[in-house]
Here is the input.
Amino acid sequence: MFIADYSAKNIYDEMFSNEGFPRKSYDFVKTKMESLGGIELLKRSSSAERALMSLGITFTLYGDGGEQERIMPFDVIPRIVPSEEWISIEKGLKQRILALNLFLNDIYGEQKILKDKIIPRDIIESSTGFLKQCIGLKPPKDIWIHITGTDLVRDGAGAFHVLEDNLRCPSGVSYVLENREVMKRTFPELFEKLNIRQVYDYPYHLRSMLENLTDVSDPVIAVWTPGVYNSAYYEHSFLAQKMGVYLVEGSDLVVENHKVYMKTTKGLRKVDVVYRRIDDTFMDPSSFREDSLLGVKGIFEAYKRGNVALANAPGTGVADDKVIYSYVPKIIKYYLGEDSIIPNVPTYLCSEDSDLKYVLDNIHNLVVKAANGAGGYGMIIGPKSSKQEQEDFKELIKADPRNYIAQPVLNLSTVPTLISDKIESRHVDLRPFILYGKDIYVMPGGLTRVALRKGSLVVNSSQGGGSKDTWVLG
Here is the structure.
């Protein structure tokens, strides 16, 4: 079953070389799974799926058919990253987050990078993530980006690239933690044999980072969720429970005398730190969107006065604008004097006349994305699209060039994946999670998302993708 049904020619495969030999990091896993046989592997896969369903790990999919509560599909064949590769990834992620934090401090402060014309001012000021209300803001400990999920992909040669940064409300870490627990139950013999780095302590690191944002001893911490109808509500409640902190909605909070309080059965209780899972502009109707029913009036002013800490800081969205993404190598060079350890994917800016012409002439060969799109929406994959779709998308680009970027179609790496009763190659990406507190912590692993549709390059759960456990070998 394992070898006979598997082929990954002309693509970088995580388990097999182009010659068909297993990579060293996968030797034991391949041997063990082959020894189990197809029937036993399918039984264990079904058992893992039942375990995840019983845990209730769901996300909400919104579409023409209304809201649908779904279990993210899970594949039991792990994605393995050798320790020597992880050392470079970890170093590169720390470099990137450090530089982006300095960038945010600057553009909401002295704006030296704009004055030195490293990035055009209009690119920053036209970003929907740039909030003028945050100019002059000084977040606690000068940290803007506390929680990051950076999407990485391998190209056809096996080299890692940063596909995009997620700096506002990155999600998916609950799947990482639950996937690991299920895998340990499904394949205990693999965990006994292999030195797989642990991820279970992420909630401890997350809480420690949040505590670091205030000088209050034994601070009151809350996870702020938009509510049960949010697509990531499971994760919000999961993390609050794991950290032993409060889970609140906007209706549970009130601001008095520029301080934030939580309503309890015993009266109001002051809140010191809020891990918010709500978008910037919905956070406070008195400072941002007046029509927000999710926000708390006055919380932004309380934050500016230093009476409450927020993670992530408001205004971080400008740094994960896909147009700003293209400038990150220059940002790293400007603030750190270093070359990027993990390179970007080559990117064309439709706001540049020469790039725009190239994109319009070659859209059939490119991936074009909206600058602030997410979840696999607001994009077109040229080779997978029709002529009419291409023409329609060209009109969107021409109507608002600033809002679009384009990239070559990367032949993403593959990992063997159990599809029905066969093992086939499927494309994957990787989202490691990074915490910036007293120091920078990178979870050893992350969320490997897998495109379950044959030939698809779109790994998002909203587009039919699933996930795998990611093993970083020690």
